[in-house]
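Subject: sequence -> structure tokens, single chain

Hey, anyone have a minute? Need the predicted structure for the following. Not urgent.
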Amino acid sequence: MQVSSLNEVKIYSLSCGKSLPEVNIRRRIELIQDFEMPTVCTTIKVSKDGQCILATGTYKPRVRCYDTYQLSLKFERCLDSEVVTFETLSDDYSKIVFLHNDRYIEFHSQSGFYYKTRIPKFGRDFSYHYPSCDLYFVGASDFTFTFPLKQMLKLSPLSLYCFRENNVCDINSVHGLFATGTIEGRVECWDPRTRGRVGVLDCALSSVTADSEINSLPTISALKFNGALTMAVGTSTGQVLLYDLRSDKPLLVKDHQYGLPIKSVHFQDSLDLILSADSRIIKMWNKNSGKIFTSLEPEHDLNDVCLYPNSGMLLTANEAPKMGIYYVPVLGPAPRWCSFLDNLTEELEENPERLTHLIGSPFLRAYMHGFFMDIRLYHKVKLMVNPFAYEEYRKDKIRQKIEETRAQRVQLKKLPKVNKELALKLIEEEEEKQKSTWKKKVKSLPNILTDDRFKVMFENPDFQVDEESEEFRLLNPLVSKIKGKELLLNYFYFQEEEEEPEGKPSDAESSESSDDEKDWVAEVRKQRRLLQQEEKVKRQEQLREDQQTVLKPQFYEIKAGEEFRSFKDSATKQNKTLEDRLKLEAKNGTLSVSDTTVGSKQLTFTLKKSEQQKKQQEAEKLHRQERKAVRRSAGHLRSRPRRGRPFH
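Reply:
Had a minute. Here:
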């Protein structure tokens, strides 16, 4: 089942079963079995009771009758020549009249062939007048031949003034007015009771508008009455004219824009629609405004279109063996004999079909972790799964055009809630990079704002940059002047500068730095002095507050089973914060805090020595002092002159 859509009106094709793969035989929907002709189908009609569908085609010329209750072929009869058109005289298939292209008229009954006669000229169309049981034939002559079925005799023809040929005819079912369409582009209306003409409409002149391009004289190719006063006329140049019989001017002129003759015209009263068809397309449009409701373009050329009564089903005779069956739920419900279509279409809308049933068939060829598919089958399946793909594509294009026009306007920059200053600075840098890449055609690097790894930095308040902090104030000169890779290089450079080697003064290295680095170092030192002054002021204020505070006695509770030693031991047992412990370590001399060149903090911890280590160090120190004293005394003795006995 193939689905198409226009103006949000879904059309289901129920006759594409032969084009589907054989592996899908159980899923294929074949509404009527063998609903086809050997070569071409020329005409198709539905009996008045709706039980039979009759179609004629070639080759060989034949008529087929399908029973809708059995959903299969009821009978098939071969004919001597091709059928131009036919009509059912009864409510079922028991009385059928065929007009052949060799001037013969053939009557069939329920059992088969019944009677055959011939008219003087080649016929093109005929109509049946129910009150008088007369058949009116029009064709390649200036006469309309009547055939009274009661007497089975040929009467005198109705003279059609001076016009030579007629293409179509129709009889109004309300008041019995008989109308014919000529090759001169006129419509003549006759009264069968008086056998005289009552009016003429010049449709060829009315079909020519300012927008239409006509290369030949329009002829009448289709004619249809609706009610007592409405008539639709189709021309050979692709126009449909809607008339009120009380006026000689058309109410509406609808152009198919293809320049092809109109094949058939039908009225759909529930929605006030007119269905007009040429060999390429079926258009459904509003008869009051002319606005297109939807359209249907089959794969093959059309020969005839039939609207199933009181339903949303269309039957088409095509230039192909397969006859078309289309279901449009908006036009009406499914016929009684195929009411399951309503439930089926609803299920298809809720559960879109997949292609798992094609695995293993020639239509899908396995390749690695997927399949190769023919591009034509892919487009068909995509249309079935998403019939509104074109509408979505059109909306996307319109949205892109609107966004392009909006880009030319003044745009406000949307900043995140966290680190707005940093985000603004990154946006400005990105714009500068884009301008440079446009000029130099250099590949741009990804932005931090669009990188998911740094997304939390602009969403979580814990990552908010404190501009009043000591680290920010020391790093701010560096960030404002050094970007990208220079930031990392200078960072490691200043880190190594703190650990300067022995024998090389810092002035020698500073003399080798650039002027920008000197300015930056001066700015960092200035900020460091300001921070030291602020820290000094804070300590003085804290000292004043400590002097003003009155100390209160603290009471300690000794747990049962513990022995009291000193207040120092009890105080150390209490839980302290990291800040308090760091202050205590700094006071004891085991921790030293220093500032680095780039503004960060450096902590140095020294291990606390035990009493035994202290005694050992004192003993070693005393031993070294004793040895030094011994060396000094020994040196003093060597430097003193020796005194001996006098030489005799």
